[in-house]
UniProtKB/TrEMBL annotation:
CDD domains: Radical_SAM, Twitch_MoaA. It comes from Clostridium zeae. PANTHER family: MOLYBDENUM COFACTOR BIOSYNTHESIS PROTEIN 1 (PTHR22960:SF0), MOLYBDOPTERIN COFACTOR SYNTHESIS PROTEIN A (PTHR22960). The lineage of its organism: Bacteria, Bacillati, Bacillota, Clostridia, Eubacteriales. This is GTP 3',8-cyclase. The keyword Phosphoprotein does not apply. [4Fe-4S] cluster 2 binds at C250, C253, C267. It catalyses: GTP + AH2 + S-adenosyl-L-methionine = (8S)-3',8-cyclo-7,8-dihydroguanosine 5'-triphosphate + 5'-deoxyadenosine + L-methionine + A + H(+). Its cofactor is [4Fe-4S] cluster.
Length: 318
């Protein structure tokens, strides 16, 4: 599907749940989020039906996200079904990694191609603080297991946070010295009820380049990737900088999002949502709605206009 700005829209991000086993300070509001009732959340057959329609229209890459996708019961069965869709080249997942030790093998066997794992610190105490109770050892064991079963290349997502993990930039970058792992620094986005928390702790990704000036810019293999890629001289892995705030990447954006409660979003930073669950449940064809949302995908996001994004990140999926 080609949008009005000549971008090829071939990537669908599906959030399978609003629930999570962690409560990261920049993602989940202090008081939690209103728990959706069972019927509000898309059933797996409905996700499959929507994905099938998208694939028939030209989507060839799916990413499962959440909340935490691995807390939704039956996720392995969903992946098995999605991976059999004709035309799919890649099914990836973004996960906090805490449950990967248990599920990595089954995920690989079900047809998952690879994982992005979110990890903002390599310090046990700091991890417990930022995730409000998470255990770093679980994630490290999850990463090991994901490597073992070849859910690769593994990408680590590190949200850069003022006075929290700037001092760990070098440690994260050093992970790429001897391993084929991508470490991607993401700028903190002011979204939902934790907007002010995030605004106060935003740090530009320029800091990464200032701290490690020897990084060499390289061409990304994926032209639609939001990351600008770098490498240490002789490093095996890559460093990605994802700069939604300091430098927009909308020109290459190739994605549409489906939320767990059945809304389509053409842009992460827009409050416009289209209800596809209603159409599916009414037995109506969704082709026109999908083509329309692609056609009206915004040229770029307007964070500099201070548009307040109401939906919490945990209910968007990143
Ligand atoms: N639970 C999974 C995880 O943490 O990877 C998937 C969902 S999470 C919402 C997806 C990604 O969004 C994670 O990499 C997380 O760090 C990132 N994220 C959440 N809130 C963010 C924010 N305010 N700014 C930037 N990235 C954010
Ligand atoms: Fe959960 Fe991921 Fe949000 Fe952290 S970033 S609270 S792990 S959904």
């Amino acid at each position: 599907m080609i949008d009005s700005y000549d971008r090829n829209i071939n990537y669908l991000r599906i959030s399978v749940t609003d629930l999570c086993n962690l409560r990261c300070k920049y993602c989940m509001p202090e008081k939690g989020i209103k728990k959706a009732c069972h019927d509000e959340i898309l059933r797996f057959e409905e996700i499959e039906e929507i994905a099938k329609k998208f694939v028939s229209l030209g989507i060839n890459k799916i990413r499962l996200t959440g909340g935490e996708p691995l807390v939704r019961a039956g996720i392995i069965t969903l992946i098995k079904k999605l991976s059999k869709l004709q035309g799919i080249d890649e099914i990836a997942m973004t996960t906090n990694g805490t449950l990967l030790k248990r599920y990595a093998k089954a995920l690989k066997e079900a047809g998952l191609t690879r994982v992005n794992i979110s990890l903002d610190t390599l310090n046990h105490e700091k991890y417990r603080t930022i995730t409000k109770g998470g255990i770093l050892k679980d994630v490290l064991e999850g990463i090991r297991e994901a490597k073992k079963v070849n859910l690769t290349p593994i990408k680590l997502n590190v949200v850069l946070i003022r006075d929290f993990n700037e001092d760990e930039i070098v440690n994260f970058i050093n992970l790429t010295k001897d391993e084929e792992i991508d470490v991607r620094f993401i700028e903190l986005m002011p979204i939902g009820q934790v907007k002010d928390w995030s605004l106060n702790r935003y740090v530009s990704n320029e800091n990464v380049l200032k701290r490690v000036p020897e990084l060499i810019q390289i061409k990304s293999k994926d032209m639609a990737s939001p990351a600008k890629y770098y490498k240490l001289p002789d490093g095996k892995g890559n460093i990605g900088l994802i700069n939604p705030i300091s430098c927009k990447f909308c020109g290459n954006c190739n994605r549409i999002r489906l939320t767990a409660d059945g809304k389509l979003k053409a842009c992460l930073h827009s409050n416009t949502e289209i209800d596809i669950k209603g159409l599916i449940r009414a037995g109506q064809d969704t082709t026109e709605v999908i083509c329309n949302i692609v056609k009206h995908k915004p040229k770029e996001h307007g964070l500099e206009d201070e548009e307040y994004i109401e939906r919490e990140m945990i209910a968007i999926g990143g």
